[in-house]
C-alpha cells in the first residue's frame, strides 16, 4: 500500500479510536478540542493546496472562510436553503473571488499575490460590515436552534466530530488525487523550474489559478461547517485576519507541500493555543498575536520544512 | 459645489504627499534590497506610539521627536536584517520565506502593542491638529501642512543621500547586484553591511513617517494594517525604484481616498483605493513610473 494512503488511514483510525474513547469517558471538552484540531488540519490543507502545491502565499484565507460562512447562512436564513446545498454555492463564490484576485496577480511576483490577499480580505470584511441591511453588520447572524441534520445541524458533539473528520478525509483523498493528476504534475514542474515548464507548454497562470480556486472552494466549505457548528457568525470571528494567520501557521508548522503535515501542525498548534489560553487567558491582550508571530518567525528560521519533514528524517535515522 | 471640490482636491494632495513619506520606507526596503516588508505598517505604528508616549511624558513637541523616532526605526530595520532576513537568506530561503518572516514580525509587533497599551485608541493631543488655516475656500489643519513640508523635505534628503553621497552610491550599487554575491565580492563591497544599512534607512524613513502621522491620525495596535496596505499600494502604483513615481502615486491615492470618502461616505475611501489598486495591477503591473 502507498505510504500516503497508509498515513491517511492511520490518522483517521487514530482519531476515531481516541474520539470513541473520549465519548465513553464522556469527556466532551476533549472531543471539542479534537474537532478544532480536525477542522484546523482541514483548513491548513486547504491553504497548503495554495502555497505548498502552487507556490501562492496567501495571507487572506479568512476571506474565503467568511464568504462560505456568510453565503450559506444567508441562504439558509433568507430562503430556507439547506447548507448542504448552500456550501456548494458559498464555495463557488469563494472560487470566483479567487479567480478575480488570481488573474491580475499570479503572473506577477509572489509579493503581489500575498498583498492582494490581505487587501481583498480587508475589503470583504469592510463590505460585510457596511452592507448591514444584508449581513446585519458587526452584530452578525444567529442560526435558529430548530435545525435538523438535513440542514447540516446535529445535536450531539460526537456527530459533529464525525462530520469534521469526514470532511478532512474527503479533502485528503481529493488532494491525493490532485497530486497524481495532470494539474499536480504541472504544478510540481512549475515549482522546479517555471521557465522550463512554460517552454513545454505548461502555462503557470492556468494551473495556479485552478489550484487557488480549489483551495478557496474547500476553505469556504470549512467556513460553512464552522457557521453551522458554532451557530453564530460575526465579521470579527469569521473574517478576522488572525484566522488567516492561524490557517497559515498550522500549515507551515506541519510542513508545506505534504499531505498529512497539516494534521501534525494543527494538533500541536491547537494544543499550544488552548494551553496558552488557559495560562494567559484574556489577562494579556495581544498575547495570541505575540505567540503567532514568534511561532511563525521560529518556524521560518529554524524549521523551514516543517515538523512533518523533521519527523520523517528522525524515523530514517532511527531505522539505520 | 466648487468650494467642496477644491477642498477635496487640495486636502487629497496634501494627504497624498504625506502618504508618499509613509510609503518611502517600504519602497526603500523593496526597491533596494528586495525585502517586501509586510511589517511596514507595524513599524509605522511603533513610531506612532513612541511619539505619543514621549510627547505625553516629556511634554515635548512631537516634531522634536523626529530624530529619536528615526533612530528607533533605524535600529528596528537594521536588527530585522541582521538577525532575521540575513540568516534566512543564508539558509537558502527564497523571497517567499522572507515575506513570511516579515509577516511574523508584523504579528509579533501588533501583539506587543496590544499587550502593552491594550486596544484603547489613543489620539495625540497637540496644538497643530486644532489650528485650522484657511486659504480662501480651503481649510487645512497645521498638522497636515507641517506633514506636507516634512514629507517633501525628507524625501528630498533621502533622494540626495542615495544619489550624491558615497554611501548612497554603494547602496545603489549593491542593490543592482543583490543576489549575485560573486559579483559583489569581486567589487570588494561588504554586501551584508550595506543590506543592514539599507534596511536601517528604510526603518528611519518609517520612523519619521510615524511621527508625522501621529499628529493627525488615531493610534491603535491594529492601525498597522492600514499603513502597511497603503505602503504597498503607493509603492506598487508608483513603480519600484522611482522617487517621482512615489510622490505621484502618493498624491493619487490621497486624492482617491478623499474623493471616495466624499462621494460614498467614510471608510469607502479605502475600499475605492484597494479596488483601483487591483485594477492597476491588471493594466500596468510595473506601476506608473517603474523600471519593468
Write the layout of secondary structure elements.
The complex is a heterodimer of chains A (320) and B (292).
Chain A: H1 3-24, H2 28-53, H3 61-79, H4 83-105, H5 110-130, H6 132-135, E1 141-142, H7 157-180, H8 182-192, H9 194-199, H10 204-230, E2 232-233, H11 235-238, H12 241-254, H13 261-280, H14 287-302, H15 306-319
Antiparallel strand pairs in A: 1-2
Chain B: H1 2-33, H2 40-57, H3 66-90, H4 95-117, H5 127-130, E1 132-135, E2 138-141, H6 142-164, H7 166-177, H8 181-186, H9 191-214, H10 223-238, H11 243-264, H12 268-283
Explain what you see.
Chain A contains 15 helices and two strands. Chain A is an all-alpha fold and 320 residues long. In chain A, α2 (28-53) packs parallel to α7 (157-180). Chain A is globular, with a radius of gyration of 19 Å. Chain B is mainly alpha-helical and 292 residues long. In chain B, α2 packs parallel to α4 and α2 (40-57) packs across α9. Chain B has a two-stranded antiparallel sheet. Chain B has one domain (2-283): Orthogonal Bundle (ABC transporter involved in vitamin B12 uptake, BtuC). Chains A and B meet through α4, α5, α12 and α14 of A and α3, α4, α10 and α12 of B.
Amino acid at each position: 500500500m502507498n505510504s500516503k494512503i497508509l498515513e491517511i488511514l492511520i490518522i483517521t483510525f487514530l482519531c476515531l479510536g481516541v474520539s470513541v474513547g473520549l465519548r465513553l469517558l464522556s469527556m466532551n471538552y476533549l472531543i471539542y478540542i479534537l474537532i478544532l484540531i480536525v477542522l484546523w488540519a482541514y483548513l491548513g490543507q486547504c491553504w497548503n493546496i495554495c502555497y505548498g502545491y502552487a507556490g501562492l502565499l496567501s495571507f487572506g484565507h479568512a476571506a474565503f472562510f467568511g464568504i462560505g460562512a456568510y453565503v450559506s447562512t444567508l441562504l439558509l436564513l433568507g430562503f430556507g436553503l439547506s447548507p448542504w446545498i448552500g456550501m456548494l454555492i458559498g464555495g463557488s463564490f469563494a472560487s470566483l473571488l479567487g479567480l478575480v484576485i488570481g488573474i491580475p496577480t499570479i503572473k506577477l511576483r509572489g509579493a503581489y499575490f500575498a498583498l492582494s490577499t490581505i487587501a481583498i480580505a480587508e475589503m470583504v470584511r469592510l463590505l460585510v460590515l457596511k452592507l448591514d441591511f444584508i449581513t446585519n453588520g458587526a452584530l452578525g447572524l444567529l442560526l435558529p436552534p430548530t435545525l435538523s441534520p438535513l440542514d447540516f445541524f446535529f445535536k450531539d458533539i460526537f456527530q459533529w466530530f464525525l462530520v469534521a473528520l469526514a470532511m478532512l478525509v474527503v479533502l485528503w483523498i481529493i488532494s491525493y488525487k490532485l497530486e497524481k493528476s495532470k494539474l499536480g504534475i504541472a504544478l510540481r514542474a512549475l515549482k522546479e523550474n517555471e521557465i522550463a515548464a512554460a517552454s513545454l507548454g505548461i502555462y503557470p497562470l492556468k494551473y495556479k489559478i485552478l489550484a487557488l480556486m480549489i483551495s478557496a472552494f474547500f476553505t469556504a466549505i470549512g467556513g460553512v461547517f464552522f457557521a453551522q457548528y458554532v451557530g453564530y457568525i460575526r465579521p470579527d470571528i469569521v473574517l478576522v485576519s488572525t484566522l488567516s494567520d492561524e490557517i497559515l501557521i498550522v500549515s507551515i508548522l506541519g510542513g508545506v507541500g505534504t499531505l498529512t503535515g497539516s494534521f501534525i501542525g494543527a494538533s500541536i498548534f491547537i494544543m499550544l493555543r488552548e494551553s496558552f489560553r488557559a495560562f494567559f487567558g484574556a489577562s494579556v491582550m495581544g498575547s495570541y498575536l505575540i505567540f503567532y508571530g514568534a511561532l511563525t518567525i521560529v518556524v521560518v528560521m529554524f524549521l523551514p520544512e516543517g515538523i512533518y519533514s523533521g519527523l520523517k528524517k528522525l524515523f530514517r535515522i532511527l531505522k539505520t | 459645489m466648487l468650494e467642496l471640490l477644491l477642498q477635496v482636491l487640495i486636502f487629497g494632495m496634501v494627504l497624498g504627499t504625506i502618504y508618499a513619506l509613509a510609503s518611502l520606507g517600504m519602497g526603500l526596503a523593496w526597491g533596494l534590497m528586495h525585502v517586501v516588508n509586510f511589517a511596514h505598517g507595524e513599524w509605522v505604528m511603533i513610531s506612532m506610539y513612541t511619539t505619543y508616549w514621549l510627547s505625553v511624558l516629556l511634554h515635548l513637541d512631537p516634531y522634536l521627536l523626529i530624530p529619536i523616532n528615526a533612530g528607533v526605526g533605524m535600529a528596528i530595520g537594521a536588527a530585522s536584517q541582521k538577525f532575521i532576513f540575513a540568516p534566512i537568506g543564508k539558509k537558502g530561503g527564497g523571497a517567499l520565506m522572507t515575506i513570511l518572516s516579515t509577516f511574523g514580525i508584523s504579528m509579533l509587533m501588533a501583539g506587543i502593542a496590544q499587550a502593552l497599551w491594550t486596544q484603547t485608541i489613543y489620539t495625540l493631543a497637540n496644538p497643530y491638529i486644532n489650528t485650522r488655516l484657511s486659504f480662501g475656500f480651503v481649510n487645512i489643519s497645521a498638522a497636515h501642512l507641517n506633514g506636507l513640508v516634512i514629507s517633501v523635505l525628507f524625501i528630498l534628503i533621502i533622494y540626495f543621500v542615495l544619489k550624491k553621497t558615497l554611501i548612497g552610491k554603494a547602496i545603489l550599487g549593491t542593490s543592482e547586484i543583490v543576489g549575485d554575491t560573486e559579483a559583489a565580492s569581486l567589487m570588494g563591497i561588504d554586501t551584508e553591511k550595506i543590506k543592514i544599512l539599507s534596511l536601517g534607512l528604510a526603518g528611519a524613513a518609517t520612523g519619521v513617517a510615524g511621527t508625522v502621522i501621529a499628529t493627525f491620525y488615531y493610534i491603535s495596535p491594529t492601525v498597522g494594517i492600514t499603513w502597511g496596505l497603503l505602503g504597498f499600494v503607493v509603492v506598487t502604483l508608483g513603480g519600484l525604484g522611482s522617487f517621482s513615481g512615489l510622490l505621484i502615486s502618493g498624491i493619487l491615492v490621497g486624492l482617491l481616498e478623499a474623493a471616495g470618502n466624499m462621494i460614498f461616505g467614510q471608510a469607502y475611501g479605502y475600499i475605492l483605493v484597494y479596488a483601483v489598486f487591483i485594477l492597476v495591477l491588471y493594466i500596468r503591473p510595473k506601476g506608473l513610473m517603474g523600471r519593468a
